[in-house]
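queue> pop job 88
queue> type: inverse folding (structure -> sequence)
queue> payload:
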């Protein structure tokens, strides 16, 4: 009996130890699983933090790129607007320069021409009253008749009247048959009826000595002057010497380039002893004109529109072409340019 009891007690103890051992193994497994889960949670949290940071970085980069794109878009839009204005301005100037002034402008300026002619006549009358030369000696009536019978000089209204047919033929040729590759001193640009009218009036109504109203731009004025020079060179050859007055190097540069373009001139045609001489001051111009006259040459004085006054000394030359500024129009020579 005692053996049976001992055997049963040992068996219970063994079962109890086995149960405890199994519990410990299960607990150890749970502890390992717990550690693994904690590690995975920590990794997930780290990944979530990295993803958040990456999203924030991407959002910032996107925002910066969008801001830069919008700024660049505004800059490009502004540049396009400036280029569009330049294009429209060039188109308008091309139409005005090479197609001539519109009929409306021609009608408006025609009424102002008489005012300019009257102003020049008043100026001449004022000069005559200044007694710059000795008064002529009074002579008897018969001798006065002899003086009146003296043949006038060649550069007068009558002289141009005798050559009217040739001048009109040249103007018609310039207008209807432009020769863009003609010889030097021949007009090479498009010439409209408005330009021809100005030149014709200067020859016949003003006898080659007077002021005409500006065509609106210096380039158009140069075109009119170039036509007059071309005709005079056809009539008198290289005896015609052009003296241009414009009191700034920039304006003189425009006249030089304009004559090169309209008359086919080059550097050899400009200079103190050449066909065209440029001046910023009227005094040396008048001295040059006197010397040319003494040498038998024919100086043609051209005065830029921007000149605010005309020197009295320039009025003694028989060939004078002055461009008068339109007081009712805005000054186009000093406007702000985008290019």
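queue> result:
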């Amino acid at each position: 009996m005692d053996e049976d009891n001992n055997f049963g007690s040992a068996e219970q103890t063994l079962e109890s130890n086995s149960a405890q051992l199994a519990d410990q193994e299960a607990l150890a497994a749970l502890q390992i699983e717990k550690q693994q889960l904690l590690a995975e949670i920590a990794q997930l949290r780290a990944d979530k933090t990295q993803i958040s940071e990456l999203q924030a970085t991407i959002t910032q980069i996107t925002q910066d790129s969008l801001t830069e794109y919008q700024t660049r878009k505004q800059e490009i839009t502004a540049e396009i607007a400036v280029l569009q204005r330049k294009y429209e301005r060039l188109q308008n100037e091309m139409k005005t320069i090479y197609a001539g002034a519109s009929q409306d402008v021609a009608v408006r300026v025609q009424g102002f021409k008489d005012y300019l002619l009257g102003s020049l006549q008043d100026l001449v009358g004022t000069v005559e009253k200044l007694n710059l030369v000795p008064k002529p000696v009074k002579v008897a009536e018969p001798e006065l008749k002899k003086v009146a019978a003296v043949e006038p000089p060649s550069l007068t209204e009558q002289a141009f009247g005798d050559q009217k047919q040739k001048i009109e033929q040249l103007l018609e040729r310039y207008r209807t048959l432009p020769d863009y590759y003609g010889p030097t001193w021949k007009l090479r640009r498009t010439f409209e009826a408005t330009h021809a009218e100005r030149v014709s009036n200067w020859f016949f109504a003003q006898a080659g000595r007077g002021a005409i109203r500006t065509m609106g731009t210096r380039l158009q004025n140069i075109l009119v002057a170039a036509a007059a020079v071309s005709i005079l060179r056809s009539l008198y050859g290289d005896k015609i010497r052009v003296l241009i007055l414009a009191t700034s190097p920039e304006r003189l540069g425009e006249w030089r380039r304009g004559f090169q373009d309209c008359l086919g001139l080059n550097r050899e045609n400009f200079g103190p002893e050449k066909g065209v001489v440029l001046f910023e001051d009227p005094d040396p111009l008048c001295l040059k004109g006197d010397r040319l006259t003494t040498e038998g040459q024919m100086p043609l004085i051209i005065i830029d529109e921007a000149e605010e006054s005309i020197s009295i000394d320039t009025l003694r030359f028989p060939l004078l072409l002055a461009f008068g500024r339109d007081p009712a129009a805005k000054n186009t020579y000093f406007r702000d340019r985008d290019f």
